[in-house]
Write a structure and sequence with these properties.
The structure is a single chain. By secondary structure, the protein is mainly α. It is built from 7 helices and 3 strands; from the N terminus they run αααβααββαα. A 3-stranded antiparallel beta sheet has the order 1-3-2. Helix 4 crosses helix 5.
Length: about 170
């Protein structure tokens, strides 16, 4: 049986609902229940990838934002919270913990003596680079059953859905 013909637990759930409540269109469950299940699997994969570098997911988020910022890999706390979707109090606590762990440093903003910049340390850079390398390899493996063309189509459809929901 090809994967196209294979059935999964979502098929069983939808079949059961259709039997018990035949008047409803359960087609959204065929998509969004799978997205939910895939998100749970992806979360496990991501946690494992970050753990290989000794990072918590939230530490990876902060370090990844700094790494993507480019040289000198520093951002204001406000820019970090905007990229990681957390409150200012949460970001302050995260930065404090990461400073204690030697992953980031705080410094006075050179153009604004009242402002602060958060910069990644060499250890932080090494860890985020290791984590992203492991993550990309793991996620490539998760998608191995799809052709490149299917992956591109799926990415485009998910992008469209994401934009529609925003």
């Amino acid at each position: 049986m090809s994967s196209k013909d294979a059935r999964d637990s979502v098929d069983e759930i939808v079949d059961a609902w259709m039997r018990e409540h035949p008047g409803l269109d359960f087609s959204p469950l065929k998509i969004l229940s799978r997205v939910t299940r895939l998100a749970k699997q992806l979360e496990k994969t991501r946690r494992a990838s970050f753990a290989t570098a000794g990072l918590e997911p939230w530490e990876f988020d902060v370090l990844a934002a700094l790494r993507r910022a480019g040289t000198p890999h520093e951002l204001s706390p406000k820019a970090l919270l905007e990229q990681t979707y957390v409150s200012s109090g949460t970001m302050t606590n995260r930065i404090d913990g990461m400073v204690r762990r030697g992953l980031v440093e705080r410094r006075t903003h050179p153009n604004d003596g009242r402002g602060v910049l958060v910069s990644m340390t060499a250890d932080g850079r090494d860890r985020v680079d290791a984590a992203i390398s492991h993550l990309v390899a793991a996620e490539t493996e998760l998608l191995a059953g799809l052709s490149k063309a299917d992956q591109e189509r799926l990415a485009a459809l998910l992008r469209r859905l994401s934009l529609d929901l925003a």
